[in-house]
Amino acid sequence: MTDIDPNAWRTLVLDADSQAGLCVIRSLGRRGVPVTAGSEFDHSLGSLSKYSENDLSHPSPTDAPEAFVDRLYGVLDEDDYFAVIPVNDATSKVVSQAKARLEATGTIVGIGDWDQEQAVYDKARTFELAESLDIPIPETHAPSSLAEVERLADDIAYPVVVKSRSKYVRDLAGRLQLHRVGDDSYAADPDELVSTYSDVLSKNEHLEAFPPLIQAYVPGETTTTVGLADEGDLQAWFQERRLRTTPASGGNSTLIRGMRDPAMREHAAELLDALEWTGPVQVEFMRTLDGEYYLIEVNGRYWGSVPLAVASGVDVPWLHLCQLAGYTPTSPPVYRDDVVQQRLLYGDFKWLAERLSDGHPSALAEFLATFGYATPVFARTDDPLPSAMAPFRWAEHRASKVYEKAMGALSSQSEDAPEEMPKQVATAPDESP
After folding, report:
1. 301 with 280: CB under 8 angstroms?
2. What is the CATH class of 221-376?
3. Fold observed for domain 6-111
4. Beta bridge partners of 84
5. Which runs of E-coded beta strand occur in 115-173?
6. Tens digits of residue pLDDT in 366-398
7. Residue 38 to residues 71, 76, 332, 372, 413: CA-CA distances in angstroms?
8. Rounded to two decimals, what is the model's pTM?
9. For the chain, which residues make up each domain, given as ranges?
10. For 149-199, how does the pLDDT look when each residue is reduced to its tens digit (9 = 90+)?
């Protein structure tokens, strides 16, 4: 690929306020690609990077997906961009669904067609395919109604988890609602399952048309095979394990490192081949104590911990852009598996608090030792401004969410509503970017 001219590949990177988005910007920018940082937030972390030449604000893809697409179309139609790359889950979903319209501007859209994407956005379809390939999966049920849950509740093994078939689901107003797995998503017996499932549906009316899955809980360690595929061929890849998550039972990764296991790669490659997958992808497994890998989910987009792959020698964003330009990406002959990253410091504090409250005082020493060997994801001496601003951006976002919840509660009380305002119930795994 010696004839490449990165300066001709002007790229709009969306979700620039996320870790993964910032990583894509840094990866492309240091290769000489002119990058614009796109985000629903003003002064995103990506726009503060020295590798970003311009920034762009746009409507929220979750709260106003149609307005977001209109804004994106207008920008691509007026300006000369080689490619636009969505990063996070919701943005990737909206962009994929509008891909034909956006590509009419002459810009390459760095996400698959919706026909490809929905095969993994609907987890029921993903697990059905995996089962047909004899890839191990947790016992999974896809009930069509609460009545069906009540009928099967006595016939399944416990514990189980109730999880959304998609991380983001459109509500009745057309907004995308996030669903995560939380401690209240688990059930230990038939009565608790029916109660949990009923609670999810009552507080999320839009899920009645897209009922959640019921899946056996598989204890173990979360591991992933990630990389870049072309028509089902996994051409560049990396593997990682989550050393810590919040909640500790499974969720957002807070401490991660690389690994290698041919068996996990074989499962991932077989599934991607059946999907005929093209583009970035994360295939997540639960590794049990006996070394068995159970498929947990497939994310057909960039994943939150992509900085670890890049730091370990697999520069997925750069390889992806080369793929969009018509080149064949190749994985390096070897990658580092000794890099440890502290991905979410505030999440790691939550992990510590949970472990201490559960009666594990040794967690404090384990937590403090991390600062001696792990690298904070945002930390880059050659690009310090996003690193310096990251804590303030997180505090700003958290304060905004607290304010919204408080105002919602006050509004509910002042209107003397006959019932409580619906609360979002956690129902699907979240590897936040």
Report:
1. yes
2. alpha beta
3. Rossmann fold (3.40.50)
4. 12, 109
5. 140-141, 160-163, 168-170
6. 999 999 999 888 778 889 888 777 667 666 665
7. 11, 12, 30, 34, 37
8. 0.88
9. 6-111, 221-376
10. 999 999 999 999 999 999 999 999 999 999 988 888 999 999 999 999 999
